[in-house]
């Protein structure tokens, strides 16, 4: 018999159907056995006779029976199929599960993070864990949708690169035959090259950061949602595009992930029409005025500053989002555009939300001579970025772009305590699938 999905069963009252899935929970009540069977669309209660008591958790079944309405007393309002159940007529075991190392039937998994990750294939069967990746898929889908709606072309950036785009030492070197290359920290230079031809481009790419410290918000392999656009009048055009993009993503998550948000009792970040925009110095002054803590003159916001400024702005304006721009030019990568009126500060920006940086972006240097000057001042090797530099020889208009980290958004939207939970197969300094030995 043709397979019916669990989510379609409510419309089949009185009909005999076949459902396929895994045993989620099983309760024996005298002659009857109750099983919650799970497929990719949800769970349904099966009512069976004695023989089914042989089945164990996570066994995989094909089961045929008649869908009937539950009596009033046994309706489960928390389950989308809570008004129906299946009277089992026959079943076959498609695959038998080994004994489980821990109970995954509880509503809360309650596992330590290493256990959660060491048994990813199994913990991923838990609805609450699945919800994380459903939300992440919607974040990535809606980023793509927004970009396409606004005339951006998707491109594929390389992962093996000859030079470090973002500067710094957070880069993995690879043996490339008998030469040296790197894993890409960002598609930055390639999105800028592609932009010079297509005007508006975006990519959804893995990027690699050799983060030397283990924190709750850093991974070594990240899904980067990148965009780049030509013909801007100022960095604020980039900011406006990014603002509209993040609001679109949040709206879509709100509309398409109702059940998933409920599982985490998560509320979406609050937004207002005009997302607040502060210079770094204004943000530092505000932190000083409100908390007495003096970070004025620092070259960047540290995690405590990010938390404080988000809290202050949320209280003052009701917005959980805030843009901070105008960082010390020399502290940011060579491609960021210095403010013409105050060249020691740049027109780069970060978007913060609920105390964490969600993205970076801003206007870029588009003038070839200025770019060459930066290459020299930032001690870059021009021979390693010839493709990039050549692109800027041939008339590039004012331009800019931005990039979100998909795991950061997922973690923050759902209020997860650790970014590793928001990566299907997280990598960090100590873990590549499992904890690495010294
Ligand atoms: P940046 O280095 O700020 O900017 O990275 C952009 C966004 O990517 C996410 N992110 C990370 N998430 C988890 N773990 C990490 N180790 C990590 N590193 C970065 C963050 C961050 O805001 N080329 C610029 C972007 C641009 O200007 O267009 C860049 O890579 O959410």
Give a written overview of the molecule.
The protein has 11 helices and 20 strands. The protein has 438 residues and is of the alpha+beta class. It has 2 domains: 90 residues, Nucleic acid-binding proteins (OB fold (Dihydrolipoamide Acetyltransferase, E2P)); 316 residues, BirA Bifunctional Protein, domain 2, CATH 3.30.930. It has an 8-stranded mixed beta sheet, sandwiched between helices. A 5-stranded mixed beta barrel has the order 1-2-3-5-4. A hairpin with a 2-residue loop joins strand 8 and strand 9. Helix 3 crosses helix 5 and helix 7 crosses helix 8. The termini are far apart. The structure holds aspartyl-adenosine-5'-monophosphate. The site of aspartyl-adenosine-5'-monophosphate has 23 residues, from strand 11, strand 17, strand 18 and helix 11.
**Overall 3D shape:** elongated
CATH class of the largest domain: Alpha Beta
Total beta-strand segments: 20
Integer average pLDDT: 95
Instruction: Give the helix/strand class.
Output: alpha+beta
Helix content range of the residues, please? Answer: 25-40%
Provide the CATH superfamily of the largest domain.
Bira Bifunctional Protein, Domain 2
Q: In percent terms, what proportion of residues is strand?
A: 25-35%
Multimeric organization:
single chain
Bound small molecules, which ones?
Answer: aspartyl-adenosine-5'-monophosphate
Count of domain modules = 2
CATH level 3 topology of the largest domain? BirA Bifunctional Protein, domain 2
Radius of gyration, rounded?
26 Å
CATH architecture of the largest domain: 2-Layer Sandwich
Report the end-to-end length measured between terminal Cα atoms: 54 Å
Largest sheet features: 8 strands, mixed
* Strand line-up of the largest beta sheet: 6-10-11-18-17-16-13-12
- Contiguous low-pLDDT stretches (5 residues minimum) are none
Report the total helices: 11
